[in-house]
Amino acid sequence: MRVIALVKRILLQIRRDKRTLALLFFAPLLVLTLMNFVFNGNEIKPELGVVGANKPLIEQLEAADIIVKPYEEVADIKDTVKENKLDGLLQLTADSFILTVTNDNPTIAKMIEMKVKQLLQLQAQPSFEQAEATNQLAIQTDYIYGSSETVSFDTFSPILIGYFVFFFVFLISGIGLLNERTTGTLERLMATPIRRFEIIAGYLISYGILAFIQTIIIVLFSIHVLDIILVGSIWDVLFINIITALLALSLGILLSSFASSEFQMIQFIPLVIVPQIFFSGIFPLEGMADWLQGLAYIMPLYYVAEALKGIMYMGLGLSDVVRPVLILVAFIVCFIILNLFALKKYRKL
Amino acid sequence: MNNQTIIANGLSKAYGDKIVLNNIDFATEQGRIYGMIGPSGSGKTTFIKMLVGMEKPDTGSVHVLNTPMPNLEVLQRIGYMAQSDALYPTLTGKENLQFFASLFKLNKHEQKERIAYVAKLVNLTDDLHKKVTNYSGGMKRRLSLAIALVQNPEVLILDEPTVGIDPALRFQLWEELIRLKEEERKTILITTHVMDEANRCDFVSMLRGGSIIAHGSPQALKDQFDVETLDEVFLHAGRTSI
């Protein structure tokens, strides 16, 4: 009963605060859309100068999205590349290939290198084998996850969705309870017969409702408007995100007891939020030092990312991500218990 | 039957080296108004918070309505008004009242009746639909008082209730406090800076440096120190205790 009163009041307060509502519901959409544009940008077509190539090779290069500029003869390779603003130059002689890449952008350089190598291998084969057979042998690539259409945004967008749910719910719920502390209303509540767990429950439920709506908006928007890949069930995605929201909620209100102003709450972002994104799987963990990898296991968002990536990208079901989900639930329970203790400084009961 | 509503025994509290309360004994009876006066920093608010169970004494005990504090059942029967207005600014006056009322065991009908009654009492009936952000300081004070009264408590603990309230309304509030004391036999404990208000209390306790330096009815105190005003009592009592 008292919990309901608290929930009603918090929701009413948030409804009056239009900016916070907008932040909660639309800011994640805006950021996701921007990131979508940034990472889904059309692939750059590198320009490659070619000396002494035959027609089929040029056609194949062009088919591989390379802009080919044939040259009869090149006196100074470096000058030619610089003057014509090429990304690379390929020289073919009777017995050797020399590829010169500009390498002002390593990604483009790698791409040219890879494509040219592939094509030259194909070219080389007909000289030993029958020409017809190779034409049919044209390399076929199989993808375990995603497809040839896969862009990097697809692989980490599930992580981003979880991350935004976490970030915005953390911030808003934390500041919500903090406001209650700084204005003295929390202390005032302690002079009423409300129990500590009722306060925590009230906050969890009211912000949980908001987080639920937010999650639905973000997930639907990501899948239907941004066309983010979703192989698994949308219900599973919603479920994981609700867990994420509860996690952010319990951590947010817990940390708010260590902050004495909104400013101090913001200071938790570089401490608590930002490091988690490094360990959530957007950057490959395998390349990190062992002790750094170990850090990932104490970061809740690592498990959120694991579960969401599993469902959205690899098409796993809930039963396949039981482990991360259970660990997340353990985190939540832990934070809630700590919250009850944190409120003890106001009243013993 | 025991008429004593608040009993505090040997309350002491220190924050580090600083002694805030030093061995305070205090008791109240039904149907009386108790005034607690003392300069800021004398420990008034700490003392009051201990009575409500929001602050834990280092030593000593508090019983309210024959129950050791803190106790959630008893909190239902205590009306508390904090020194700072603890209100939700984005909500209207009425929504604030409704929220606090719903934390107490009041049914819908009682709730409505009590809200209308306390709003009228503090002269806020016409402003109930306004958001608290738009309230003046005095209006916020009055709303806080209304909230303290909303569950019709037997014990009222008011921390500087009349700060920022104009004289006409202050007069009206005192009339009401006296009515509550006489007709409803409530125990009222208020802290104040205003000696004129202290004069209207049945008993006055003077607090300085965490100790009660004088206690008694206003007249008895004046007689004891052979002076005309409570201000002088305070000065004399302070001198003798140091």
List keywords for this structure.
heterodimer; A: 349 residues; mainly alpha; D-Maltodextrin-Binding Protein, domain 2; four-stranded mixed β-sheet; 16 helices; 4 strands; elongated; B: 242 residues; alpha/beta; Rossmann fold; six-stranded mixed β-sheet; four-stranded antiparallel β-sheet; globular
**Estimated helix fraction of chain B:** 25-40%
State the end-to-end distance of chain B: 39 Å
Going across the biggest sheet of chain A, name each strand in turn. Answer: 2-1-3-4
CATH top-level class of the domain at 1-77 and 155-167 and 187-242 in chain B: Alpha Beta
Work out the largest interface and the residue count of each chain: A-B, 27 and 29 residues
Describe the strand arrangement of the main beta sheet of chain B, using strand numbers: 6-7-8-3-9-10
Class by alpha and beta content of chain A: mainly alpha
**Strand share of the residues of chain A?**
5-15%
* Shape summary of chain B: globular
Overview of the molecule:
The complex is a heterodimer of chains A (349) and B (242). By secondary structure, chain A is mainly α. In chain A, 64% of the residues lie in helices and 6% in strands. In chain A, a hairpin with a 4-residue loop joins strand 3 and strand 4 (97-101). The longest helix of chain A is centred in the middle third of the chain and has 31 residues, at 152-182. With 242 residues, chain B is an alpha/beta fold. In chain B, a hairpin with a 2-residue loop joins strand 9 (203-208) and strand 10. The longest helix of chain B has 18 residues, at 167-184. Chain B is globular, with a radius of gyration of 18 Å. The mean pLDDT of chain B is 84. The A-B interface holds A 1-2, 4-6, 8-9, 12-13, 16-17, 183-185, 187-195, 346-349 and B 52-54, 56, 70-73, 75-76, 78, 80, 82, 84-91, 95, 99-100, 102-105, 131.
